Every structure is written in structure tokens, then in C-alpha cells.
Amino acid sequence: MTKAQKFQLLLVILLNYFTFAIVTNITGVLLPFWKQDFNISSDAVVTFLVSFFFIAYALTSLPQGVLLEKIGNKKTLLWGASLILVGAAIFSLMPIYSFGLASLFIMGVGVTAMQIVGNLLVKELDEDPNNYSRNLTMAQVAAGLGGAGGGVLIKYLVEGLNWEWVSAYYVFGGLALSLCILAIVTKIPELKTEDIEKKEAPNAQEYLKFATNPLMLIFALGIFTYVGIEVGVASFISRFLGEKYEITQVNAGLVVSLFWTLQAVGRFAGGLILNYIPAPKALIIYSVGCLSSIVAAVVAPSANASMIAFISAGFFTSIMFPCIFSLAVNSFDKKHEGTVAGVLCTAIVGGAVTAPVIGLISDISGSLGTGLIIAASVSFAYIAFVGVQAINNESSKKNDSIKTVNNKKQEVLI
Asked: Rounded CA gap, 201 and 55, in Å?
């Protein structure tokens, strides 16, 4: 690819990440609006709207991993963006709970396709596989900006233009349409003919094999846990601040935006930090930082202290997804990367589980803070464990490599 073609591909990747991130992460800003407008009293019930979005990952990630390998990168990207357009149209025209469930499910299917192909297209920007973690982290800066844009967008639409929250879905439709047009006119790399011939056709047995591989299970559960706690915390920041400190929905939504902004900053910084700290060690360090931030946010004596702590948690979540994802992809043969990506993206269904669990704990205990602390403690302990296991796996590979070299030397001597 020429430099101009790589630059245009980079624009597609960045718009792709920005679009699926703002569509995904705005739910944390909109939950208080949905709870009020749809007359829902239960925290657990209102989070089903978020759950339906992420259930789409569980049901369609593996089939769309097959789809990508059958129809290619460009068509998969267009398919995903088109579903965002359709889902946004449904919710914007019929803003009620039942249609919201259907709309968010459809958009979840689209985001799944966009994320699978996007994570793999990043590899086309640099031929050196050792730079994949760094490049994926840098590319997801756009995702952080997309997440940050939700609260700003709602504040502008609701307070600036005096429009309803539902108008945000017209914006999402416009972003999806723009992505389709840009993708059509861009040269998007596909697998070479010889690579396609080398690839084994993925089937249910192969996916089952990967899904039950012990190392794959560790990484997949890591993605499940990370996405779950990220979505859970972001979903309830606005509610927590509103209930404890009586901050307005719009202003609390801005804190959610700053959470995603610091995540974007963290991903940018992570692209540099990961040049010096190995991804597994970074997972451990950032897990401790994130848990400390969330505990501090819940027990903070003032609104300002709580907001700062929640925002700092966004920074510490920044490198977790790209590190876990890249560690998993690089742990298996290149010809199976689409299958591995499909398994990992299935695990994003964690976003459908943790938020309702936090809501359920909140309903039972009468304390949203209790739900946040319990979920964060379990989640970040496991993510740190993933880092430890990755270190052990790399150490085992080095030992095996040394043994192989020694055996060959002994054979030569003999």
C-alpha cells in the first residue's frame, strides 16, 4: 500500500472506532433519561437496554467471524455500519422501551462487525507484529474520543438546542452513513489469495476448540470481565453522582464524558508506555489503579473528589482491552486470527452482565456504591490475574525455546 492509501485506511479505522464507541458508550449518559421517560423504577430493569446491546456480541460474534473470512474486510465493515444506520433510525423514530431493545440489539450486531474488522485492520498499518499492542492502543484513542463525545453531544442537544435525547440517534445515523461512503472509496486490504488458500475454513468444531482452549478461556474471560466492569461503572456514574450529590443529569453526563476522555488520554499515553512496560505487567499495575479509583469515588467526602476519582478510573481502564486482545491474538497462529477475534468479541457480552448485576446489588442493598465496589473488586482482581498468567505463558515459551535450542545443539554434537 502507498502512504496515501495507508492514510486513507487510517481515516476509515479512526472513524470506525469513533462511531462504534460513541454508539456504545452513550448508554451511560442516557440511562437516567431512559429511566425517567420510560417510567422504570428498577436499576436492574433499565440496564436491560444496555444488556440487549451486548447480548448481540454473544449471539453474533462467532458467525460474523465466519462472515468476515467469507466476504472480506470491506463488505463486513459496510454491513456493520449499515446496521448502525438501521438501528439508529428505529430508535429515533420510535423512542419507546420495546423498540429501544430491538434498536440497541441491531446496533450491537453492527458494532460487533465493526469491532472485529477494525481490530484486525489495525494490523495492516504496520507489518511488525510486535507493534500490534501499541498500534491497537493508539487506534483506540479514537474510541476514547467517541466515548467522551456522548456527554458533550447530549449537553449540546438538550441544553444548547433544546432538543430531546433521542436526537442523538440522528447523529449516529449520519456517522454510519459517512463511514459507509468513506469505506466504499477507500482501498481496504483483504487477505491475499495464497493466504486464503492456507486458511482453514472455520466451523463450529474449530470455534469450540478455541473457546475451550485453557489459554483462550483466560483471555476471553479477561475481555468479558473488562468490558463488563467498564460498562457497569460508566453506566452508573451519572446515577451515583445524581443521587448522592444531586448533580443534574446533563452535568453528571459530562463526568461520564470526562471518564471516556481520560481513557482516550490514557490510550495515547499507553501507546508510549507500552514501549517500556510489557503489556502483562501494565495490566497488573492499571488494575490496581482502577480499583483504587473506584473505591475512592464511592467513599469520597465531596462531589468534586468523587468526580475526579471516577474520571481517573477512565485513565486506568485505557490499556486493558487492547493489551488483552493483542496478547490473545499473538498467542495463536496468524491463520486463525479471525477465529480468535470472533471468540474474543463474543466475550464482550460481559457488558450485558455486569451492569445488571450492579443494579441488582443496588436494588437489594439499597446502595449503588456497594454494587460498584463489589463488582470492581472481583473484576480487577481477575484482570490482574490475566496479566500474571500472560507473564507465566511468556516465560514458559522462552523455556521451551531454550530447550529446543539445547536439544538441537546436542543432536549436532552427537
From this structure: 26
Q: pLDDT digit string (tens) for 269-291?
A: 887 888 899 999 999 999 999 99
- The three-state DSSP-derived secondary structure of 75-134 is HHHHHHHHHHHHHHHHHHHCCCHHHHHHHHHHHHHHHHHHHHHHHHHHHHHCCCHHHHHH
The amino acid present at 240, given as its one-letter code, is F
3-state per-residue secondary structure call for 168-231: HHHHHHHHHHHHHHHHHCCCCCCCCHHHHHHCCCCCHHHHHHHHCCHHHHHHHHHHHHHHHHHH
Q: Which one of 39-48, 132-141, 214-223 scores highest in mean pLDDT?
A: 214-223
Using CA atoms, how far residue 291 sits from 262, 280, 392, in Å, is: 16, 17, 23
Q: Which of 64-78, 195-209, 262-276, 376-390 has the lowest mean pLDDT?
A: 195-209
The model's confidence at residue 401, banded by pLDDT at 50, 70 and 90, is low
pLDDT range class, residue 356, cuts 50, 70, 90: very high
Q: Taking a C-beta distance cutoff of 8 angstroms, is the pair 219, 331 a contact?
A: yes
Residue 347, all three cell numbers: 466475550
Cβ 189 vs Cβ 124: under 8 Å: yes
Segment 352-370 shows an average pLDDT of 93
Residue keyed to cell 492514510 = 7
Query: What is the value of pTM for the model shown?
Result: 0.80
Q: Residue 149 is inside which H or E element, if any?
A: helix 141-155
| Per-residue burial over 383-410, b = 16 or more CB atoms within 10 Å of its CB, e = otherwise | bbbbbebbbebeeeeeeeeeeeeeeeee
Q: Which amino acid is at 362?
A: S
Helix (H, G, I), strand (E, B) or coil at 302: coil
Which stretch of 227-231, 361-365, 394-398, 403-407 has the lowest confidence by average pLDDT? Answer: 403-407
- pLDDT of 87 strictly over 60: yes
> What would be the CATH architecture of the domain defined by 3-188+202-403?
Up-down Bundle (1.20)
Of 243, 240, 248, the C-alpha closest to 297 is 240
Report angle CA 289, 291, 295 to the nearest 5 degrees: 120
Number of H helices, E strands in the chain: 19, 0
